[in-house]
Each structure stands twice: as structure tokens, then as C-alpha cells.
Acetate--CoA ligase family protein
Amino acid sequence: MNNALGRLLHPRSVAVIGASDDALRIGGRPIAYMRSQGYQGRLLPVNPNWPQIQGLPAFASVAALPETPDVAIVAVAAKLAPQVVADLGARGTAAAIVFSAGFAEMGEEGTQLQQRMLDAARASGIRLLGPNSLGVLNPRIGFYGSFTSVVEMGFPGAGRVGIASQSGAYGSHILGLAREFGIGVSSCVMSGNECDISLGELVHAFVEDGDTDVITVYSEGIRDGDRLLAALEAARHARKPVVMMKVGTSAVGSAAAQSHTASIAGNDAVTDAVLAEFGVVRARSTEHMLDVARLATRRIYPANNTLGVITVSGGAGVIVSDAAETAGLPMPEMPAAAQKHLKELIPFAAPRNPVDCTAQFMNDLSIAGRFTEAVVDEGGYQSVLGFFTYTVGADSIAEGLRAQLKAVRDKHPDRLFVLSILASKERVRQYEDDGFTVFEDPARAVAAIEAMGRFGQAFARERALLPPPVPPVALPATTPSEAEAKRVLAEAGIAVAPERACATAADAVAAAQALGFPVVMKILSPDILHKSEIGGVLLNVASAGAVGDGFATLMERAKQAAPEARIEGVLVARQLFGGVECILGIQRDPVFGPVAMFGLGGIFVEVMKDVVLRRCPFGEDVAEQMIRAIQGAPLLLGARGKPPADVKALAAMLSRLSVFAHQAGPSLQSIDLNPVFALPEGQGAYAADAVIEVAP
Amino acid sequence: MNNALGRLLHPRSVAVIGASDDALRIGGRPIAYMRSQGYQGRLLPVNPNWPQIQGLPAFASVAALPETPDVAIVAVAAKLAPQVVADLGARGTAAAIVFSAGFAEMGEEGTQLQQRMLDAARASGIRLLGPNSLGVLNPRIGFYGSFTSVVEMGFPGAGRVGIASQSGAYGSHILGLAREFGIGVSSCVMSGNECDISLGELVHAFVEDGDTDVITVYSEGIRDGDRLLAALEAARHARKPVVMMKVGTSAVGSAAAQSHTASIAGNDAVTDAVLAEFGVVRARSTEHMLDVARLATRRIYPANNTLGVITVSGGAGVIVSDAAETAGLPMPEMPAAAQKHLKELIPFAAPRNPVDCTAQFMNDLSIAGRFTEAVVDEGGYQSVLGFFTYTVGADSIAEGLRAQLKAVRDKHPDRLFVLSILASKERVRQYEDDGFTVFEDPARAVAAIEAMGRFGQAFARERALLPPPVPPVALPATTPSEAEAKRVLAEAGIAVAPERACATAADAVAAAQALGFPVVMKILSPDILHKSEIGGVLLNVASAGAVGDGFATLMERAKQAAPEARIEGVLVARQLFGGVECILGIQRDPVFGPVAMFGLGGIFVEVMKDVVLRRCPFGEDVAEQMIRAIQGAPLLLGARGKPPADVKALAAMLSRLSVFAHQAGPSLQSIDLNPVFALPEGQGAYAADAVIEVAP
């Protein structure tokens, strides 16, 4: 990796601008850290007032440096930083880490200063990390381009887990915990204000970094959706697992707040859907993130994960089974022959899975080995969890058990082996060295094992083919009326209920007679989005006379409720019966672009929040998976004696809607198809109402 | 505590029957442990073959003991145990801990042996723990009536947390983790086969134990529902929090499996409901249990818990807010005046809550003190969480911050103070000694804080008054027909839809004319429980002619589908319109007796599993809380422009049903009222169908 971000993680030389002789000041800490940790590159302090800094020769200015540093640390007052960056750029430095604070985080004036600094960088091509960044550290080469004080508790161990954090304080917190968890770090980068280098680029840098196997990400707000997604796809392709903690919910675009879809599905649910799409495991807590990262360093990612459990306590077996069920990790039974064979070894063993070898193994340690071998070999599980708890804490047991387990482990290098034991740090390290990952809490072990399977599934997936395009349709320049919205959607191949726009009562009667009674009548106006709220919808209109009266009623109601609205007439549609009511929607996410939503109509969406989301566009296969994923799916598949609905037609509609939204570009704010009637199998699905919102 | 269970936890003298000179054998471990831990009572080894055991004088038999021991450990072969127990009983020993295995866990023969031993105990009144028990330990007095090898990793610390575990292996696992978590133990008891002393009695013993403040319970299957509930109520009354890990799901009685209610609500959900009723916190994992127990030792249980957060990282603030929202722990905003005042101290502080004092505090530690004081005093939060992460790891910060925080802590002894910090063990201990409970992970801290509020609420609750009885109604001896079931329920004050049982077509026509059309007609037979499955229900029967035809149709269908069934005629009921369909049910839980279920009708229960459960009996206030607790409650309260339903009438029905089920006694298996129509407010709620199952 010889590009700027590669240099940022692996600099051969580092200048510190604003270097301090005081090892506790921010311009002094990096130098002190690197000296204590044996940084092998060249360290070049810059300070006009001192000939020496912490025992190293210092230089008066960037211009005075004897060589061009790969990376420079900028630890000067904010107002001086733009000039320093310009000077570094002129020297050809690849990247600068800007510690200095007092930029965009401090209001308007700081924002302008930050822009000036960025302009200076762009002029020469030097890349900027920060400002307001706690920096970068690479324990593998002793590079500490950081002033984080977390290292006062001990420097991180070197390893193969990369950490990218937007927060310096929380990034350091993670670093401190990683050390306690025994996790070795390749590099840790804290991105600060992200005026230039963004989180997505950092993830990409870790994908390309030969020293990094596992990528952990802490994010408070994603700014570069496209770049991040490209990095996640690259990580998937490179078989590097990404585990991400994304806290809070980003602000929803003000335009989106109007849409039905946006108000139902929070922005956070969009993040969930997008991360799941790329096989990223979203961490529920810092511990969860580090548990997953630690196990992931074994680089065993079973695409068809199953869990076999060997236990010395029935209770622990139940805990593991409960946790596996919650996590959705399958625990198939042992084959009947294997069960029989284990019963012969110990009559009172429980041989199904969890396999309980009982405390008997303490009298004959080979039992533990034979039972474990049976689980791995005869059971054929991809992942194996052994619960031996404190029994290995006793020296009398520990050595013998270790030999038994190691023999099985060595014979099956492709399997994921996890132990739940309580023992001294030294003893745990021995088991870890033998190829077992150790968790004290069996439930946490299960959660981590489940994550490995999700990585494996994502890695095994073919790159999704783009779905076929829909006919190109021009989006109206402003939010269209219902009839116009439906016309546009119909052109894109989305089935709408048969209907006609009618300017007069006579037109409406003729339309109803042509469509067949009963009909639905709706006021037609580009200025009235939520018609039912003003009484603008009439259902079950069953005769020509009623249609005539209905026309007058709707005109009167519209005039009363919205005197300024442009009224184009009335929409007459055939009333659909016998289908399942659904909602299909699109909302434009400010970070990830158009996102599709599917749910069952009415209360299911509004009260039960039973919806599924997916970034656009996607094909019919994905659409069908979405439809089957909602909790209320049995209603579509024929619950309670009703005929199954036309799920294929519904999936086609959802997929086309997603492609339409993708093609429509950024002026499309939202679409609500509500209700959509999914008729019985073979009879299709039709949108009975449609709202398209276009950005002004 | 001078009763047998009190002696079991605090024996003044202990005999070991089957004592061994080998400190690694099960008859040798307790002696070795007690000697190494300085047990102050008298230790009396019994072994006919040795004059001395581990340096102590040994006695040849129970009869030869120089005094009556408070407690005896029985570590002899199973077949000898009944005689040993008889001998101990004859001496007047209060309780025996039976280590020996080979009893009920080993099949029929062992079960008989266990019964013989129990008979021997009952004859003299000696109480038995076990058999197959890993024993009892009380680190406060160095009493180790246990052969658990977990102590080889270190003996538990003495403290005020009691541990009651049904599993020896998992109990020891908990003990090992408790030591790592720095939790001091009052006593730990592992109950094994529970032939005599049950989990409920152990919980009760901890309620009465003056050395125990907090009770932790690990259960694999509750055998003594009534006793456990009495103990939990006593714990609540004594303000002793109980945190319980209940794994797996107990077997559902085979009779209950027939009932609709039982098939919807799993047995585990019953456990959830019962534990919540008593304010027991159900632990999701061992770590969760120990987190809660550790914080609970502070004995601060806020009945109206609110969380104020002081942080040095915006990101951590978001993590805490996310976790608090998930847990349902309120985080109200700081008062406006306090926010203004904090903004004056640091212009870029975030003063709402979480209150972010930013890294500025590192330059002036008094800022941390003033901000924390503001959160506690001006914010008035019951619980306060400070996120200072690794900053306290630096000696330069740690001492000063400690003084600042301690001053606030000392001024407000009634508040719960939790810190999320990363520091050395010694440093953490200092903060703990100052009155702060320390969690590394802020999300785990929030979960534990939330639990303290649940304890506080439960402790503050008045003992629930028993609801008024319903008129005593004799339950039929066998499962009654629908008409009979409704008659019984109506007598108990439960409103059923107006209806008449009709033996002939002419009766049916007359009944329909009296009730008013349209009517519902249903086949009436004690042998046909699920009428709609055989086409035995006709809806919307709208004329006298149609009633006559319907009668014939139903008779014909019943004969075809169930030729053996006793047919009593047809039930004619007025058809109800305009209400919300609900389901009310009762299932008899094998452990906790009758449990009531409430949910919305149809798909809400079957597909969405949106139900709430509660042990019977309960009053109308509780019933109304249940109704409002389901996810679909907005449908009853007037969602989507519909009139609100008569929730009061529904609550009255649910409460009366619970009282009826309670009064009916154990032969009542289940009741399904499905559907119940909750009509608009003021118009009542009526059961349109009723099934009562009676045990044969």
C-alpha cells in the first residue's frame, strides 16, 4: 500500500509540527510514545524555539526538514494550521494528522478556517486526517501519531484487528478494552472532523492493508454513504469481516419527514438494513464488537454455520441452547449412531446436542476427548463450543484435558472451536495458543459464533446482479397529483388499479359504468396529499346516481378544506375485493439514497411497526425475501384458511418500484403506495393509491 | 436464624460422614477447605478406619460423635446414605448435606433409594439438602460444606450476596465469576436433586438471613411454585432484591397442550410474567445477573428511577441514551436554568442530558465536580452515570477527579452513582470504596441501573389486595358444552352474548325472533370443542326461514363429522357488530396454577403473538394495565379514527375470569373466550364463544 492512506498507517518517517519537549503536552506525547515503543522510522520534531526536543534534533520549520516526511503530525494552534498544511503539501508529504481543535466543531468561524486548510491541502494533494483528531497508531511498528492518554494504562498489543473510530474518546475507550480483551491491533485511526479523509476511506484502507484481517468501526454519523458502501463491498470481496458500532440515529432529511414511509421506519432501521446487506455485523455494545472481532481473528467463517456443544453441565447446555435459538444459530441433533455410541461410553450421558459428558470425564479425561471428537467428526458441526467452566482451573485436570482437546483441534483445522472456561490468565493463554478462543460467558460465546456464520454467508454470496431497468420515465418537476403519479408508475411497469381521471360528473358516471360497480371515488388534486383526512375518498359507490352525487360531495369538501388547492376533478377506480392490503414505499435516506419499505396495510404498519427495508435497487428474488421476512407474512401465504396472495406479483412490483426510485435520481423524495391489494395467487397485485413526492 | 435452614448456612459444628484423609476426594475436600479458610466451628470427621483425618481426631460412627453436630455432610456410597441419615436424625442433627450421587438422577432404583432416605429423614425431622448436591459454603465464617473444585482458583470473598443454584456445576461457575467480578458472597447453596429442601425454601432462608442483602437464583426447573412465590413476596417485603436466571422451558402439562391459550403463550412467558409480578429481575445471562447483584449491594433502589449522565465523550452519551431507551429508563432533560449555567461554565458543553463536559475538564478538574454536582442537585436524577473512560487511568487526572467526585457523592448519599471507567484494579477499588460502582461498558451499567428501579418499584408497591370473589359456581365434572360453559361463566358475572340453547328448529326460530336478526347459529355439543373446523358455525343468519334451514344444516354436519358426539341442539345468539375482537384465556400452569391471557383476536394472537399473561387472580386495575400493555392496544383505545372500545368492561371481564379460575381449583384446565367483542365505550364487552376444559 503506497498511497497516502497506506503511508498514514505505515509511515517510514514522521514529522511533528509543534513538537514539545514536555512528554505530557499534545505536541510531546507522540514523540514520547514512539520513543518508548521503539518506532523504527525517522522521527523529525519541528519547533523554531528549541534545537532539541526530547533528546532528538529539532528543526525550525517544515522547510528546514532534512527530508520529506511520509506523514506529519500537526499540533499547532488552529489558526496556524492552514499555512503548515500548505508548507507540508509543498514538500510532498503524503498525509497530515491534524490534532489541532478549534475548527468546524466550534461554529462558523472555525468552519471557514477548516475550509481554508482543506483548500491548502487540495492545492498540493496532501491528505488530511482530522482536524480535531486523536490521531493514528500502529503498534506493529511502534508508530504513535496520537496523543491519546489511554496508553498510560499500557500500550496496545500488536495484532491484526484494525480500528476505525470517528470519536477520539470512544476510540481510545475501545483501544483500552481491546488491550484487556487480549486483542492485538494492526492500526487504530480516529477520524475527528473528517474534513478530508472519511470513515469509508479508512475502512477501504484496512481492506487494502496486508496487516489487517478484521475491521472494527465505531461511527456516530455516516457522512460518505457511497464510499462506505464501496469499502464494505470491497471488504466482503476480500473476505475481511467488518463489525460496526453505529450509535444514535442521524437526522432525517426535513423533506422525508412528510412521508408516511419515513415516519414509520426510523433512520436507524435503514442503517440496520444496509449493514445487513453487506454482511456487516452491527454490534450492540462495545463488548459485543470486541467479542466478535476477537473470534474473527481465527479467520474461520462457516457459510452454513451449525453449532455442536459439548458440556459438563446440563444447565450450561440449556443456556447455550436458549442463546443459540435467540441468535438464530442452528443446533441440529447428533446422528442416531453417534448418540448410541456415546451412550455406550457413558450410560447417563445426554448425547443429542448439547452433548453432556457429565462430570464423569474428570475420572477419565479421555472421555472428554472422545466426546469432543464425536461432536466434531460424527456431528459434523461447523462450530463447536465446549463448556468446561472451572474444571480446567484445577491443575489436576487442566493439562490432561488440554492434550485431549488439542488432539481433536489439530485434526480438524477447518472448524471453529470455542471454549467456555474459567481459569487463570496463563491457563487461558495456553488454550488460546492451542487454537481455541475462550469466553467465560457461554451466552457471549454463542453470539460471537453466530456472527462468524453471518460473515461466512456474506462472503459466499455472489455479487448481486443489478435488476433489469424499468422503462425510463421522466419524473414530474413537482409533486404530481394521484392520477399523474399513477400514470408515471404504470409507465414504469407498476400495476395500478384500473381507474380514470374525470373532470365532470358526467365523465365520472361514464367511467364507473365502463369500469364496473362498485367504484371508489377520490378527489384529484396535486395540492392534497392525504385525501382521506379531508373526507376526499368515497368507497363502495354502487350506482350511476351515487356517482353523480359523490362528484358533487367531493368538490364541496375539497373547496371547504383546501380553498387554495388546484382541483383537477375526481378519480374513479374499480373497487378491489378479496386481497390482502399492503404498503409499499420509498424514502430517500440522506446517506444511503432511496430505500424501499414493505409491510402489511393499516394497523400492521402503524401499530405493529411490522416492516422490512432495503436499499434500492434490488431484484425480484430479494423482494420476495423481504415480503417473506415480515412477521405478518403468514397472512400473505394463506393463514387462517384464506387463499395465498399473489406474492410473485407483489415481489415484481416491489422490485420495479426500487429500480424506478433508483433511476429517478435525487429529486425523488418519497413514494407511498397505500394500499396495494395483493389479490389471490395468479390474480396480481394493484396499487389503489399512490403518492410521489418530488423535491421542490 | 435458629431453624434448620439457618443452621445449614451458619453451622456451629459440622460432621463429615465418609471423611477422607485425601484432600482431593469428595470426603476430603470440605475438611481441607475449612481448615485452610479458618472455619471457627467444630469440625468432626467420621470414618471407622482412621483415628485421624487430615490431622483432626476422627470418630468411628455417628453414634460415636462427642456432640450433636448442627450440620452433617454425607459423603458415603448412595446405598449407605439412608442409614446415615437415620443415625444423624437420631442424634438430633438439624440438617444433612448429601453429596452422594446415584439417586433419582439414575433411574427407578435410585428413586426408590432416595425415597427411603427421605422417609428416614422425615421420621426424625432432619432436613436434607440434595442428594447429588455440591453443597453449601459460607465464606463469612469459612464454612465449606462443599466439594466444588472452583475454589482451587481462589476462595470466594465474603460479602452480602446469597447464591441459590439448582445446578452444582453452574452454581460453581457463577461462584467463580462472582469472585472475578469482585462480588462478596454471604452463602452459596447448590440444591441438587431437591428431595427435601427446595429452591423456594432456600430463597426464604436468604430472606431471613441477616448476612444477606441481595439474592441471586439459578434455576433449571421450578418444582415448588407456591413456596417460591411466598419466598419472593417475603423478599419484596424485606426489600431484598432477587435476580434470577431461569433457563429453558419446563414441560407443559399434556392436558394444557390442547388449549388454544397454552399453544400461543409458551411456558417460559408464564415464568416471565410471574417473576415480573414479584419484582424479580430475570437475568438474560450470567454476566447480567452478576452486574445486577453487584450494583444491588449498594442498597439504593429508586422507585421512580431517572438517569442523569455526565460524559466526556459525545459518543458515549449517545450509547448510554440508546441503551436507556432500550431498557425503558427515563432520561429527562436538565432544567433550563441548569443548562444555561453549564453553558456559562463551558460554552461548547452539551448541557441537556447526557451532559457533556468535554475534554475541557482535564485542564480544570473542578469542572468535572461542578458538572456532576449540577446533574445530581439541579437535575435531581435518582441515578447518575459518569463516563470518564480511560482518563482516570492517567495518574495526572485520577487523584484530582476522585476528590471532585467523592465530594458530590458524600453530599448525596441517597443517589445511585455509577462510573464507566477504564483503570487499574487498584484505582477501580478506590472508586468503589468511595461509593461508586464501576462498569467498564456503559451499556452494561445502564442495564444494571434500570434493574435497581424495578426493584424500587416492586418494594414500593402495596401488597396487592385480593380482588373481590365472584359468586361461587360449581365447575361441571367434565368438559361442558358451549351453552353450559357460558351459563357457568355468566353466573360468575362474565358477560356473554345474548343467546339461547334450542333443541328444535322451531325453538331456534323463536329464539332468533326474540333476540333480533341477524343471528349466529352454532352446533351445541359437549364433544365438539372446535366447532368452526367442522362447519358448525353459521354467521349472519338473517331470517326465520334461514334459521330453520340452518338448524337442519348444522345437525347434518355434526352427524357427518362426529357421529359419536352427543348433540344437544343449536345455540342461537344475537350477532354483535362494531366491536374489537379480543381473546381472553386461562391456562393451568403446572407450577404456578391458573394464568390468564389477553390479546386481540385472530391474527394478532396467532401470527403476531401479541399477548400478555398474568397469574390469577387479579383485580380490575391490573387487568386494565394488561390490556394497555399489548402492542396492539391503540386499536382498543381509538386508533385510525375508530371509537375507543369499552376497556373498563373488558378489564372487569378479565379480572372476573381470573378470580373464577382461581376459585375453580385444580380440575380447571383451560378456558378460551374467543372471540370476545369489546364494543364502543359504555356498551360493554361480550364473550361470543366459550370453551371450558375440565380435567377428567
Notes: Chain A is about 35% helix and 20% strand. Chain A has five domains: 1-134, 148-297, 307-460, 498-574, 580-694. Chain A touches chain B through 65 residues (CB under 8 Å).
